[in-house]
Amino acid sequence: QPLQAGKVALVTGGSRGIGAAIVRRLSRDGAAVAFTYAGNEAAAQALAGEIEASGGRVLAIRADSADAEALGAAVALAARTFGRIDILVNNAGVFLGGSVDQMPLADFDRTLAINVRAVFVATQAAVPHMGEGGRVITIGSTNAERMPWPGFAAYAMSKSAISGLTRGLARDLGPRGITVNNVQPGPVDTEMNPAGGPNAEAMHALMALARHGRGEEIAGMVAYLASPEAAFVTGASLSIDGGFSA
Ligand code: NDP
User: Fold this and answer.
1) 155 catalytically annotated
2) Which atom, in ligand 1's list, is nearest to the CA of 66?
3) Is 109 touching ligand 1 by the criterion CB < 6 Å?
4) CATH assignment of 8-185+214-238, given 1.10.3720.10, 1.10.8.60, 3.30.980.10, 3.40.50.720?
5) Which residues contact 122 (CB under 8 A, 6 or more apart)?
6) If 0-12 CB within 10 Å is exposed, 13-18 middle and 19+ buried, where does residue 138 land?
7) Ligand 1 contact via 189 beta carbon (within 6 Å)
8) Exactly one of 35, 82, 155, 244 is catalytic; which is it?
9) Whose CA is closest to 64, among 34, 36, 103, 95?
10) What's the 102 CA to ligand 1 centre distance in angstroms?
11) What is the tens place of the pLDDT at every residue in 71-128?
12) Which of 10, 12, 15, 36 to mutate for ligand 1's pocket (most ligand atoms within 8 Å of CB)?
């Protein structure tokens, strides 16, 4: 029997990149998986089709994480469709750059809305559907620990906020047997940060392992945190960054 058989997961921003790797992994581990996406219908349908073809239960929901009402409705739909939520993975995020003298306030607000506020919104909506053994896992970033370049203050702030939010939520939800953790990837090969992109070499120069990570590697840490074996891990920020912050 697969490890997560009978469990239900919801992954925000699950149609591409790290989120899609997490959707695939939790489905392979036996969970029914709902995921949200912002607008790329084709990628979402392709992933849902792939999961169905492999015999998994899946639900793709279009919901912009910046829209609290839409996100709350997506959580409710996932819970209604699959009966409960055991694992919430807050993965959706944006990487908007711009130094302090250039960045429009709208981009600062959007960074906060998607990378931070939505994590609170989704968690608040999901926990009423969670029982003992529930899991809340957020994808933060190694940039919470180290931001070595100009132009990314808002992004670094948003990911640092996740470590504080995680500590506080762990205290709120511990009495109910729900753990809350923060996974902090380093550079991972996705459309947000391609391994062949112009900044890849500069990133690798700062790392103990001079390469991009793969979505599957991040999904492996999420799968561990989602598993019963990780029941004693909570409030933690765990870096998986090739030594970027070492
Ligand atoms: P991608 O840009 O490759 O994929 C983003 C995914 O999130 C897509 O499925 C996209 O949907 C969805 N999404 C984007 N905005 C929203 C939104 N407003 N509402 C709902 N869904 C949304 O990103 P990555 O996979 O690279 O990043 C995933 C997470 O990992 C982010 O939180 C990011 O900050 C974090 N991270 C990434 C690193 C990297 O190097 N790649 C390093 C450290 C952290 P759609 O297909 O519809 O656009």
Assistant:
1) yes
2) 18
3) no
4) 3.40.50.720
5) 10, 12, 65, 71, 72, 75, 88, 90
6) buried
7) no
8) 155
9) 36
10) 23
11) 999 999 999 999 999 999 999 999 999 999 999 999 999 999 999 999 999 999 999 9
12) 15
Question: What does the alpha-carbon distance between residue 109 and residue 122 come to, in Å, rounded to a whole number?
Answer: 18
Nearest of 199, 101, 99 to residue 154 by alpha carbon: 99
d(CA 194, CA 41): 21
Residue 158, pLDDT score = 98
Averaged pLDDT of the chain: 98
The residue extents of the domains of the chain are 8-185+214-238
Q: Ligand 1: which residue has its CA nearest to atom 46?
A: 40
119 C-beta closer than 6 A to ligand 1: no
Length of the chain in terms of residues written: 246
- Virtual CA dihedral for 83, 91, 51, 127, nearest 10 degrees? -10
ipTM, two decimals, is: 0.99
Q: Report the nearest-CA residue for atom 34 of ligand 1.
A: 93
pLDDT tens for residues 117-174?
999 999 999 999 999 999 999 999 999 999 999 999 999 999 999 999 999 999 999 9
Rounded to the nearest whole angstrom, what is the distance from the C-alpha of residue 20 to the centroid of ligand 1? 9
